[in-house]
Design goal:
Blueprint (H helix, E strand, L loop, with lengths): L12 H8 L3 H18 L2 E5 L4 E5 L2 E9 H25 L4 H4 L5 H5 L21 E8 L5 E7 L6 H14 L1 H6 L6 H13 L10 E4 L8 H11 L2 E3 L4 E4 L2 E6 L2 E4 L2 E4 L22 H6 L4 E3 L16 H9 L6 E2 L3 E2 L3 H8 L5 E5 L9 E2 L5 H13 L4 E5 L5 E6 L2 E10 L1 E3 L3 E2 L4 E4 L15 E8 L2 H14 L1
Parallel strand pairs: 3-23, 5-13, 6-7, 6-11, 11-12
Antiparallel strand pairs: 1-2, 4-5, 4-20, 8-9, 9-10, 14-17, 15-16, 15-17, 18-19, 19-22, 20-21, 22-23
Helix pairs in contact: 3-11
InterPro entries: ATP-dep_Glu-Cys_Ligase-2, CP_ATPgrasp_2, UCP005522
Protein name: Circularly permuted type 2 ATP-grasp protein
Amino acid sequence: MFFEDQRIRPCYDGVFAHFSALRPAALEEQSRKARRMFNRLGVTFTVYQESANLERTLPFDILPRLIPSDEWSLLEQGVRQRVRALNLFLRDIYHEQASLHEGIVPRELVVTHPDYCWAMVGTKVPFGQYVTLAGIDIIRDPGGRYLVLEDNLRVPSGISYIFENRQMMQRLFPDMCRRYRIQPILPALSFFARYLRSLAPRPTSNPTVVLLTPGKYNAAYYDHVFLSQQLGIHLVEGEDLLTLNNRVFMRTVEGLQPVDVIYRRIDDAFLDPLVFRSDSVLGVPGLISAYRAGNVALVNAPGTGVADDKAIYAYVPQMIRYYLNEEPILQNVPTYLLRDREQREHVLARLDQMVVKKTTGAGGYGMLIGPKASAAEIEDFAQAIRKDPKAYIAQPTISISQHPSLVNGCFEGRHIDLRPFVIGGERVIPGGLTRVALRKGSLVVNSSQGGGSKDTWVVPSDGQKQVEERECRIVC
């Protein structure tokens, strides 16, 4: 919101003026309204703790984040480029494996990965689209550069919060929202619905699309309910589906209905007990056989989790050059692969300065943030790294950007990141999801660990705004 010399960034002028005019009591009342409305709507997530799993209303910060359209254009191009390369990588590793033969990505890293899906080898994926929905986590460093922190390709969550946050801001601050020329987000939802239907393998004007959920106890269940309603698709659990003669059907009161596309929010391991975990009661027996026969589309494709791996993440810039013959638009955070002895020794000597993550970790769990860790925690991680170095990567601790957030009636700086969602490798939802680390000094923004979110506005950049105002004066 501010430059280093404390001047307000031009795009924030109106927001700053609006919120500065409100008294602390009014700000707190608006924040309470948001909590009440989210609670009434059931906009929740689950915080996992050792003693119990607690369902909480999503914390919402009422001060929006603004991204000028010229910055957004760069981000949009960068995440699209990244998802296109990752999609080609996934097709390659399950077919020709050219990048593995040529050493672009180490073969061992891919084929021994727990998420490498052998059932997908040689399987034809509808339209070659392995990644229909991707969430790319981005941070901004002290120099103002946008850097990619993680790729989420398996079952990325949080898309519903983008739309709920926007609706909440329009309810709480309708006049301010109208004054800004905010890029709309609803067209992206319509595009997503059309795109899902376009993946149907059989020729039909009215394909049946379902969202397969693990059920109401899943941390992202609200996300599932919201999307099924807004996309106009059926919300089903595994027991609602069955397979016959390599076709998938949905049980309805009118009998069995053929299913064309399954937007699955279940991890690979639970999809089909005949192929993956035999004890799974969440999936559908015979589903992978029907998929391999080309009779149903799965979104995202099984086996995409291998590209979520934080060690493989380090090779995405090389993938972009190899598959697209382009230079990466967005850079990675510098990453050390601890399977390499030299890099491992470098990191072990500086653990108090590093962020260490499990390569298959998610949700902000199992991390070491060196500058904030105790000597005992650092020693525990050092031992774990020496025992299984392939299971970890390390990155330098970056002071990621902060944004004013309302805390106990006052605005204080809190660390944020950004998760743009890419649909079909083509459409990016304007703004994406800004996540906030609400605990003071924390770098962990995940909602499962107490983080919150903000509405994110893509607004005209300074030059565009001046042109629009000048044109308006001429017309008047």
